[in-house]
Fold this sequence. Notes:
Elements: H1 3-7, E1 11-17, H2 24-32, E2 40-46, H3 53-63, E3 70-74, H4 81-91, E4 96-99, E5 105-106, H5 111-121, E6 125-135, E7 141-144, E8 152-153, H6 155-160, E9 172-174, H7 180-187, H8 192-200, E10 205-217, H9 229-249, H10 253-269
Parallel strand pairs: 1-2, 1-4, 2-3, 6-10
Antiparallel strand pairs: 4-9, 5-10, 6-7, 6-9, 8-10
Amino acid sequence: MTEASRNTPLLSVIMITYKHEGFIAEAIDGVLMQECDFEVELIIADDCSPDKTSLIVSKYIETHPKGQWIKYTRHEHNKGMMPNFIWALEQAKGKYIALCEGDDYWIDALKLQRQVDFLKANPSFSFCFSNISHVDQFDKELSESWPNRIEAFTITKRMLGEEYLIPTPTILFKNNILNKEIMGKMSNSPLGDYLISSLLLLEGNGYYFPDKMASYRHHENGVFSKIDIQHKVNAGLKTRRILFRFFIRRARIFSALVLLKNSRTFKRRYQF
């Protein structure tokens, strides 16, 4: 292995953050505790946080033994969540990408190694994800979201029901769909993670690990936690419309029809 190949990350971790000074350390710790036999880069995209986030991240870079993993950018002006997310994805150099926002965190030190090993050994899968803990701002566990799930996750299962949600902090995927067209779709979608996982399912199946590998935090400043149900439903419907048009243009007619059925069921469930 050459010096250049040793320094080229196999995996990029995308961590967007805004006003997460109370949580960002735990998020970073979850990444830096990873035990893996490949190079990792942690891309932290700070959307001009008006708090002490930058000081906390800078201390990790200067003092942590794995501080060199961190590539930190604080934008001069607030971009908004989705533009910041897209910007961070565009910086990724890894063959694989993992996601963890600045108020969530990983709890399994072998998360990255196990997931990368699986994708290497199973080329028909385009991503994998796991069970997750839901916690409050004090790390008290609230619920378990994925009990007794099937291992193979296909595009049909995703489109047949919105209950097949993929916990964002647990997903790890092949960096093979993020082109200009996809980035353009994401910029118009309020649910970028749902869009990504749905498009990944066009490239291969998803694999579910029943172990809890991460914690998703609910708190009053969380972007999705503070949105009311009507706005969440509207976001879901808008993202489905974007996917529907994409499937039609790609001649994925079956996927488009199943998605249309899913959208109608989703809308009736919430009586909009």
